[in-house]
Amino acid sequence: MSYPNEKRPHFPLAEVKAAARGRWPAILAALGVDARYTDTRKHQPCPACGGKDRYRFTDHKQGGGFICNHCAPDGGSGFDLLMLVSGYDFKEAVRAVAGVLGMGGGQPAPVLAKAAPPAQETVRDEAKRQRLAALWGECEPWNGSRLIADYLHGRGIPYPEQLPISGDLRLHPRLAYWHAGRVIGRFPAMVAVYRDTAGKPCGLHQTYLTVAAGSEVAKAALYEPRSRQRLPAKKMQAVGAGSLTGAAMRLFRPQNGLLGVCEGIETAIAARYISGVPMWACGSAHGLKSLVLPDSVRELVIIADNDPNKTGIQAARALQRRYSGKLDSIRIWQPDGIGTDALDVLAANTAKGYLKQ
């Protein structure tokens, strides 16, 4: 969209969001998004990273919401979906939606949807890789201060500083938290690098922290400035669409071909503390299910979350099936309590005095 010989109009985000509410399927269709991606009745492949049924359009609160278990496990808005499918940045997406709605006066402005980027690594992917590498370079060793150790201790892990956690876990002293195209604050963050099966960095996992009264370190409580809706304290950044599929955060070094895998970072560290098995974290049930193991792994231990909907055990069994007959042994462990994981088991045992703090 161009505005020759006149100043480009400014569209306040709140006004565009209000005007778009309840109209997202039509807006997205006008901008070239296939109608199947706005069908709320079924799960299907993600328009960005594929898969089988990891994507669903929810239109949450009529805001164009969607969830992809890989690209956006915490969910996204209609603007996020437009950026994911068509390659817009946030400002371009807002302008495009405003154009479809005819904001700024007159009839709806003509909008040409951008072509989706090709599946292979693009120039944008390379730029993202460089930005993430720069962010990683700003981080400090995870045990260079007490912050991460105190956070993990507060989650129920005794003496985390005594564990041989790898350098793939770091601390960022003041990491920007971006939301809706702007920074709403800077916080210390626990940052872990995702590596693909060849060991190449392909993304980052960020857990934003805060130091509360009494010097207690916990996950940051973050809220959308206007609506006061809770925002996720954890974020994942991938180099490109699909680049985290098969990848993991290598928190401990495999020993003699033995490796344990699970979903969360804290769960992985707890499982290592309990069992002594070197652990990798996959970030989510989908990450666990899709993990690609190095050829050096011969014995696999899968630590499954005991989710009420059985997502954790289903992901563990899917990984087990993929490697059945290819490894010397595969074992699955899951806690008994519904809604618990290895971290909950460790924290409960510590609280009961079975383990020393």
Automatic annotation (TrEMBL):
One of its GO terms (molecular function) is helicase activity. Residues 41-79 form the DNA primase/helicase Gp4 N-terminal Bacteriophage T7-like domain. SUPFAM superfamilies: Zinc beta-ribbon. The keyword Transferase applies. The keyword Ribonucleoprotein does not apply. SMART domains: Prim_Zn_Ribbon (SM00778). GO terms for cellular component: DNA-directed RNA polymerase complex; primosome complex. Keywords: DNA replication, DNA-directed RNA polymerase, Nucleotidyltransferase, Primosome, Transcription, Transferase. One of its GO terms (biological process) is DNA replication, synthesis of primer. It holds the Pfam family DUF7146. This is DNA primase/helicase Gp4 N-terminal Bacteriophage T7-like domain-containing protein. It comes from Eikenella corrodens. The lineage of its organism: Bacteria, Pseudomonadati, Pseudomonadota, Betaproteobacteria, Neisseriales.
